[in-house]
Amino acid sequence: MRRKPEYLSPGQEAILSCIRRTTVEWGEVPTVREIVHDVGPSSTSSVVCQLRQPEKRGEISRAGRRPGSACLGH
Q: How far apart are alpha carbons 54 and 26 in whole angstroms?
């Protein structure tokens, strides 16, 4: 059985940083497309895949596919 890493990848860290920064600056969570635009050359599906690990660890929570549906954890 493959173990999940206990750390976040550089891409996941960049995405969380984008979410934190945008939330502070704009007062709302960025959409996946805004994250793609901010983080760099990737696709929306790549960002969604990168969000899964922090979500499983409880660092963020997401409420479906609605824009701005992510919340930062503790």
A: 22
| Cα separation values, 71 from 36, 41, 60, Å | 17, 24, 5
Q: Where are the beta strands (DSSP E) in the chain?
A: 60-62, 70-72
Q: How many Å apart are CA 2 and CA 31, to the nearest integer?
A: 31
- pTM given for the model: 0.74
Length of the chain in terms of residues written: 74
State the helix-helix crossing angle for 10-26 and 44-56, rounded to 10 degrees: 90
Q: Model confidence over 11-62: pLDDT tens digits? A: 899 999 999 999 899 988 888 889 999 998 778 889 888 888 888 888 888 7
d(Cα 26, Cα 34) in Å, to the nearest integer?
12
